[in-house]
Amino acid sequence: MIEQLKTLEELQQIDLRIDEIKKNQVEYPRRIEIYNGEIDREKHSFDEIEEAGKELIAIRRDKELDLQNLEERIERDRAKLMQVKTNKEYHALQKEIENMRADRDELETEILSLMDKVEESEHEIRRARESFTKFEKHRKEEIGKLETNLERIDEILEEMVDQYDDIALRIDPTLIERYLNVRKLRRGVAVVPVIKGTCQGCHMKVPPQVFNLVIRNEEIITCPNCHRILYYENNNG
User: Fold this and answer.
1) What is the CATH number of the domain that holds 119?
2) 200 vs 215: CA distance, rounded Å
3) Span 51-76, mean pLDDT?
4) What does pTM read for this prediction?
């Protein structure tokens, strides 16, 4: 009976591995989708930073163009000063030039401020690009590993099923049926050892008389608490 129990425990290890593989068939695509979503979100964040930088540059260029136009207007009006014929016209034109010069000074201040902001933005964009590139590279590597594993998963599952079938042939069909019933109730773990009088499935002490029956290995004994199939080995203590 001990050999049957050992073989049954070996079968259980295959079953648990198959469970894990089937879980991964669902989990891997889910994780790939999550990673791709993370890349998209990080890219969107980087694009927003880059777009903000472009907007600052566009605003600065508009201000520089305004400044250039204003300088040209000032020069034209200064030329007109030599052509006016009355004091009234002269003072009016001079006042207009003074106003434009004030506007020019204000524009120059704005442009200097924008130049500082553009420089800060360029630093931020470089940092964001480096961060995104590093993040994207790492995530794509993870996606690549998952896709590679996913490509082989059917082949691995087929190999495990073949191993399962080979091992199952060495076990009494009645025992396998009992094992499968317990397995359904106990999340896949139906066969566990008893170590120092304790069931390793539920971690509860088994009654001494039950423990003695397990030690004998003459029949199938189940845990009174969790109903898992129990086995004992000489090195358990």
Assistant:
1) 1.10.287.1490
2) 15
3) 96
4) 0.73
